[in-house]
Design a protein that fits this description.
This protein is an alpha/beta fold. The chain is 18% helix and 26% strand. Strands 2-1-3-4-11-10-9-6-7 form a nine-stranded mixed sheet, with helices on both faces. Strands 5-8 form a two-stranded antiparallel ribbon.
Length: 223
């Protein structure tokens, strides 16, 4: 499987992402933001975490206009699979490839820690190897992770099975980590080929480093 990983000025998780997918047996290529086309043999496009363009103006707002993004839009429209992690999720929101927006955490502080998540919907490629209501332990690291969507948009997400992950306590009970509407940590589009989440599964690949709950998340794309 060929995984292409985008790289912007300020991206800092591209090599973690490369390591994670290579560990799962994928062929990974880093793609620079000034390129105009993603590789033709791409099976999965990943927009990794970091602080593209220093998060100036608004997280992901400048990266959304990079040369490569026209190719990303076309790839998504043709059914290509895209995963946005943290800043990558923010970029997908800014690009209109996922619904909603990101705000500053309600605490106004950067949050960096392991956080438990509940699987809400697994009828998609990303979470196909997990069960509904599974609880995962995945690192988070964000300042602008407060997901917002209006009531009509939230209803659409719920009705279409687009809510993938929610923040929770270790026992699976609901937890509001950062102010996100309905505790949402990850969503997908209606077609279920574009996925975004704030937590970092690529940082949860080995027990030696604290947890390997990210393995079956990313492995879903390789089936």
């Amino acid at each position: 499987m060929k995984v292409s990983v985008l790289q912007f000025p300020g991206t800092n998780c591209e090599y973690d992402t490369q390591y994670a997918f290579e560990k799962l047996g994928a062929d990974v290529e880093i793609v620079w933001h000034k390129d105009k086309n993603i590789p033709l043999d791409t099976d999965l496009l990943v927009i990794p975490g970091g602080f593209s363009y220093g998060d100036y103006l608004r997280s992901g707002a400048i990266a959304r206009f990079a040369n490569i993004m026209d190719s990303v839009q076309e790839y998504a429209a043709n059914g290509g699979k895209i995963l946005g992690i943290c800043n990558g999720f923010q970029i997908l929101l800014e690009a209109g490839l996922l619904p909603g927006a990101m705000k500053r955490n309600d605490s106004l502080h950067f949050i960096s820690k392991y956080q438990t998540l509940k699987v809400i919907n697994n009828d998609n490629t990303f979470l196909s190897l997990l069960k509904k209501d599974d609880v995962l332990n995945i690192p988070v690291a964000h300042h602008d992770g407060n997901y917002f969507i209006d009531n009509a948009g939230l209803k659409d997400l719920e009705e279409n099975g687009q809510i993938l992950l929610k923040y929770c306590e270790e026992n699976g009970e609901a937890k509001n980590l950062n102010g996100s509407v309905s505790n949402i940590a990850g969503i997908c589009n209606k077609e279920k080929n574009v996925f975004g989440l704030m937590p970092h599964p690529e940082r949860a690949m080995e027990e030696l480093l604290g947890c390997d709950d990210g393995v079956n998340m990313l492995k879903g794309f390789l089936q």
